[in-house]
Amino acid sequence: MSQLTTVDARTLTPDVLAELGRNLRRHDLKECAAFGLTGEQAVSESVFHRLSESHAILDERGRAVWVYGLGHVPVDGAYGIWCLGRDIPYKRYFMQESRRVIDRWLKDYAPLVNYVSMSNTPSRRWLTWLGAEWGERATVGGVEFIKFILRGN
Known about the structure:
Layout: E1 5-8, H1 14-22, H2 26-34, H3 39-48, E2 52-58, E3 64-75, E4 78-85, H4 91-109, E5 112-117, H5 121-130, E6 133-140, E7 143-150
Parallel strand pairs: 4-5
Antiparallel strand pairs: 1-2, 2-3, 3-4, 5-7, 6-7
Helix pairs in contact: 1-3
């Protein structure tokens, strides 16, 4: 497996973040567009939100593979989580790393919530694997989203 590194996403140069934004998975791009954002805008706004903890996984060439974070503003009594990334050959690493991070966050911030588009089957499968419960639906920008809740043990 290639060498992957986790870093504070706020330490990355704008060029590294913009390159990721231009190469997001099509499902991520569709969700961003529903909120009127390009991939580059969504990556930048997510990473630099003043109340968000944000991290990035870099490949051996220093390219951001994905960025993810936790919003420190409770919404309906819960903390929001997010992840934006490219199609990658590191699926096993992603599964292991995401489980580790989500378990850590659940210890301190449970429950964790957000919305994912109904058409984003890969993310919905991943969230189900993490133990997500599904909530209400909402349509934004013509895209149907469903709320997910991770409660932990």
